[in-house]
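Task: sequence design from structure.
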């Protein structure tokens, strides 16, 4: 009874709205559901799964990047070369670009909700390194080979 009086007189006593709400909640009978959730809660948007696999002539390609052109979403393929996107349920075919170092980028159209797509990266490209980078790579390899040879001798 005292809590109800405090809750109603709250503004006069300088209580905040949160305190008044807590006081009213204390007066509710046990087992009641309490205050109802607001009816204006945003509904969860429906999505479709867009899945596929990136591969080369030699099999799956883990670590490739697939980017959806329209939304800018991107993901990296897993160890089996698979990728997954959640797209809006009303999405139609989407343009995508698959990339991987050492291969030319491949643009394709992917349809959500259907069978998993297969994107093939078949055109290898040469990665040009500067002379300094080539020397660093050569020295690193040479040192590794020398260490290996020394271990064989011991």
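Answer:
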């Amino acid at each position: 009874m005292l809590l109800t009086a405090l809750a109603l007189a709250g503004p006069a006593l300088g209580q905040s709205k949160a305190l008044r709400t807590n006081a009213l909640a204390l007066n509710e009978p046990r087992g009641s559901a309490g205050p109802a959730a607001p009816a204006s809660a945003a509904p969860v948007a429906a999505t479709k799964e867009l899945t596929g696999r990136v591969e080369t002539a030699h099999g799956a390609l883990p670590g490739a990047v697939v980017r959806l052109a329209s939304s800018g979403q991107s993901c990296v393929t897993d160890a089996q070369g698979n990728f997954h996107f959640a797209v809006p349920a009303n999405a139609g075919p989407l343009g995508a670009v698959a990339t991987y170092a050492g291969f030319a980028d491949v643009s394709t159209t992917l349809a959500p909700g259907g069978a998993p797509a297969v994107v093939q990266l078949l055109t290898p490209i040469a990665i040009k390194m500067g002379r300094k980078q080539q020397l660093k790579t050569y020295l690193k390899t040479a040192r590794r080979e020398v260490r290996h040879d020394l271990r064989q001798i011991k």
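The first strand starts at residue 47 and ends at 56.
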